[in-house]
Design goal:
The complex is a heterodimer of chains A (114) and B (113).
Chain A lengths: L3 E3 L3 E4 L5 E7 L5 E8 L3 E8 L6 E2 L6 E7 L2 E6 L8 E8 L9 E2 L3 E5 L1
Parallel strand pairs in A: 2-11
Antiparallel strand pairs in A: 1-3, 3-8, 4-5, 4-9, 5-6, 7-8, 9-10, 9-11
Chain B lengths: L3 E4 L2 E5 L4 E7 L4 E9 L5 E8 L4 E4 L2 E6 L4 E6 L8 E9 L6 E3 L3 E6 L1
The chains are: A mainly beta (114), B mainly beta (113).
């Protein structure tokens, strides 16, 4: 069964810390995505990547950066965590053939910044 | 800009009922539509993917239909069970949106025993 694995289910970090959220997929997907989900705001795209070492800003990239050194791994980096970055973070992947295939999501990381 | 709307926002039904969840989108130029399920505090689980050339897809007690020209999709759940309680999200990939998914706000379903 295909999988997207997020390394942590729950994470508590202090304000100002540098935070790394890791995501690995085993499906040889070209595309990878990071979303955050907040009550009343739905899912919002932070960053995505079409290929290794390639990244594109989503709708809310401020305060975040990403890294994709290998095809299977896409990391989200909070340069200096703030309390307004407390959220559920979801990683997803998909094939570049977007007509015929959908997205696969990970199980999410609940990040709390204190 | 594509917008996706789901109605109702919340639904509570007794066990055993057949039910329909609705999804509408403003731009009919889509590649496909995907229905997801999300349990509280968890990630999204894909239920059904309907390609733009298809009219419907079925998986077990679930049936999803797509009317691309009118910008509508429905998710039909037969003989609902308490284990079906979750939030159901629909999302579309538009022909001009690259690989971005546009999500609806979701329908929160509660099936009462």
């Amino acid at each position: 069964d295909v999988k997207v694995t997020q390394s942590s289910r729950y994470l508590v970090k202090r304000t100002g810390e540098k935070v790394f959220l890791e995501c690995v997929q085993d499906m040889d997907h070209e595309n990878m995505f990071w979303y955050r989900q907040d009550p009343g705001l739905g899912l919002r795209l932070i960053y995505f990547s079409y290929d290794v070492k390639m990244k594109e800003k989503g709708d809310i990239p401020e305060g975040y950066s990403v890294s994709r050194e290998k095809k299977e791994r896409f990391s989200l980096i909070l340069e200096s965590a703030s309390t307004n970055q407390t959220s559920m973070y979801l990683c997803a992947s998909s094939l570049i053939d977007r007509k015929n295939y959908g997205y696969t999501f990970g199980s999410g990381t609940r990040l709390t910044v204190v | 800009k594509q917008e996706v709307t789901q109605i109702p926002a919340a639904l509570s039904v007794p066990e055993g009922e057949n039910l329909v969840l609705n999804c509408s989108f403003t731009d009919s130029a889509i590649y496909n539509l995907q229905w997801f399920r999300q349990d509280p505090g968890k990630g999204l689980t894909s239920l059904l993917l309907i390609q733009s050339s298809q009219r419907e897809q079925t998986s077990g007690r679930l049936n999803a239909s797509l009317d691309k020209s009118s910008g509508r999709s429905t998710l039909y759940i037969a003989a609902s069970q308490p284990g079906d309680s979750a939030t159901y999200l629909c999302a579309v990939i538009g022909e001009t949106s690259g690989s971005r998914l546009t999500f609806g706000e979701g329908t929160q379903l509660t099936v009462n025993p």
